[in-house]
Amino acid sequence: xxxxxxxxxxxxxxxxxxxxxxxxxxxxxxxxxxxxxxxxxxxxxxxxxxxxxxxxxxxxxxxxxxxxxxxxxxxxxxxxxxxxxxxxxxxxxxxxxxxxxxxxxxxxxxxxxxxxxxxxxxxxxxxxxxxxxxxxxxxxxxxxxxxxxxxxxxxxxxxxxxxxxxxxxxxxxxxxxxxxxxxxxxxxxxxxxxxxxxxxxxxxxxxxxxxxxxxxxxxxxxxxxxxxxxxxxxxxxxxxxxxxxxxxxxxxxxxxxxxxxxxxxxxxxxxxxxx
Length: 275
Ligand SMILES: NC(=O)c1ccc[n+]([C@@H]2O[C@H](COP(=O)([O-])OP(=O)(O)OC[C@H]3O[C@@H](n4cnc5c(N)ncnc54)[C@H](O)[C@@H]3O)[C@@H](O)[C@H]2O)c1
What we know:
single chain, binds nicotinamide-adenine-dinucleotide, Rossmann fold, alpha/beta, 8 helices
């Protein structure tokens, strides 16, 4: 028996990286899945985004684990498309119990006095507007079902601290904290819980097609192992996070074990914010 038997989870940014890891962990625990990703690159972003093929690969691996899976290509910045696809996913899968608001970007970076409006809007759109749009649509779906639900927003160490030349990312990830606490307050009467997991730096894993640390290292023109070393040192425990560390926390919050947890901002960061 899985801890998520009978639950249906929507995961954004599921083509690769942590989103793929969450999908695989949820499938192993018995959940059915709605998987979304943008599925194409965006010029302003310095690195390639997840592709349709990668999204289908995540879906294939989850089906192999026994999950029923629906996939949809969706830029979370597009509120209308989000509404349409959340409705479609719920109709296909018999409702929605869990949202993992995972999609996000770490590019472009830039100083607070220099970042272009276009760059600011891309990062804020993907990392804060998107989680609000998907969260709103998912919450209304859950309210209409009348059986409660749970929302997990993915923050970052940047939800607590500034990082040099990263104004839009830091502002958006701080915003996720406010979004989470507001959702927890507004949705508690409907037995819908909202929490935030704030990961430390997560190692890129070839099995998950992860790109984020590699992309940032390229943007800063630093070799990946040097960059990984800098971020490992940033954690009290001196190690990088693995995607599975974040997935296990998402499973816990989505399972009955998390039933009385709401409004919590939970670092899963090997002690980064305590250093
Ligand atoms: N990697 C890290 O070290 C780290 C640390 C802390 C927090 N995070 C956060 O974890 C989440 C997942 O990051 P990851 O490391 O797996 O990165 P990743 O780049 O490997 O995966 C992110 C996925 O989100 C998708 N995506 C991006 N913008 C989108 C949009 N507008 N609409 C729909 N899909 C979109 C991408 O296509 C990609 O498949 C992000 O929210 C990120 O900010 C990452």
